[in-house]
Amino acid sequence: MFRKRNDNSQMVPTAKRRDKPNGTALVAPRSSPLENFDGEGAVLIGRGTRMTGEIKNASVIEIQGDFDGNVAANTVIVREGATFKGSIHAEYVEANGLVEGTLIAEELLDIRSTGHVMAEVRYGHLCVATGGQLSGNIQSQVIDARAELPTEEPLPPGVHAMKVVNGSASVGRD
Length: 174
Known about the structure:
The protein has one helix at residues 145-148, and strands at residues 2-5, 11-15, 42-45, 50-63, 66-78, 83-95, 98-111, 116-128, 133-135, 138-140, 159-165, 168-173. It is mainly β. The chain has a domain at 26-144. The strands form 3 sheets. Strands 3, 4, 5, 6, 7, 8, 9 and 10 form an 8-stranded parallel beta sheet that branches. The protein has a two-stranded antiparallel ribbon with strand order 1-2. The chain has a two-stranded antiparallel sheet with strand order 11-12. The longest helix has 4 residues, at 145-148. It is globular.
């Protein structure tokens, strides 16, 4: 347990620490991104709520209940015990619950240990925790830096090497 001193110089517990069997610390669950959010563009579908429809242009969508439909946001979080069926298009997607359908995570698809994604998926980067599940048609959107490099033209006949420095070329001939 982490401890700090209170005003009376006594040690008091401040947070519980969970350890793996090998003694390394586990990361504590993240708090809701809506806790410190000003509310503009935020959507919360609470536990026990069932919703069908479409949500566009949201900053953050947190699903704790069940949602059927299409969403477009900067961040979409499907909490443990929640179900999403439909289409997600977001920069960042965190899956702790069940996601079915089509999912595009432009930057990061983060599947937590309780997350289960069964979808047609495109992602920029992918993180799957131990226990997390991913199935379906999966494609990376990361641009291969080698594909952006200019292709080399073949050397003229009889030339085995060419060096270009500040616009001046030196040629090695056979």
